[in-house]
Specification:
6 strands, globular, six-stranded mixed beta sheet, single chain, alpha/beta, 159 residues
């Protein structure tokens, strides 16, 4: 379970009324997973802070791919109960959510061909691009790399 504010009986839906602040960040699945993974307390704290901050500031974006991947990992690897995961998914919906469309699937294939990345990383990039994000928070791609108009940043590594 996510500690603190997320499961203290409060919801984060109220944060959706707060104003947008500058940078638009796309959060990769790993960031959302680490926010709920107690096996590495340092990463969990950093990831949870990142997710909550972007919810509060309305500056975070995810995709239905991120929601799907998170749900699978939370149930299978983290052994979370389905009702808990469903609740977490509702909370994550306070971020901007990009729906994966046939056009994004086609764009992901183009991105894959251009950059030589995996299809799934390319789909993440395509979703972030479609939402006009300027930053991708991930540990899966090299920090400082630039793809589809976004700079990759690893929130677990100091700049």
């Amino acid at each position: 379970m996510w500690p603190g504010i997320i499961f203290s009986g409060r919801t984060l839906y109220g944060f959706a009324l707060w104003g947008l602040k500058g940078v638009r960040c796309f959060l990769d699945t790993s960031i959302v997973v680490y926010a709920n993974d107690a096996s590495d307390p340092r990463k969990q704290a950093l990831a949870l802070d990142t997710v909550v901050r972007h919810m509060r500031e309305r500056s975070g974006t995810i995709s239905t791919q991120v929601l799907q991947e998170y749900a699978v990992v939370a149930v299978k690897k983290l052994k979370q109960a389905v009702p808990v995961v469903v609740h977490q998914l509702h909370l994550l919906e306070s971020l901007s959510v990009v729906q994966i469309s046939p056009g994004l699937v086609r764009r992901a294939l183009e991105v894959q061909q251009i950059y030589g990345l995996s299809y799934w990383d390319s789909l993440i990039l395509s979703a972030g691009e479609s939402a006009a994000c300027d930053t991708l928070l991930t540990e899966d791609l090299d920090a400082g790399s630039f793809y589809c108009g976004m700079i990759c940043k690893n929130p677990f590594v100091e700049d």
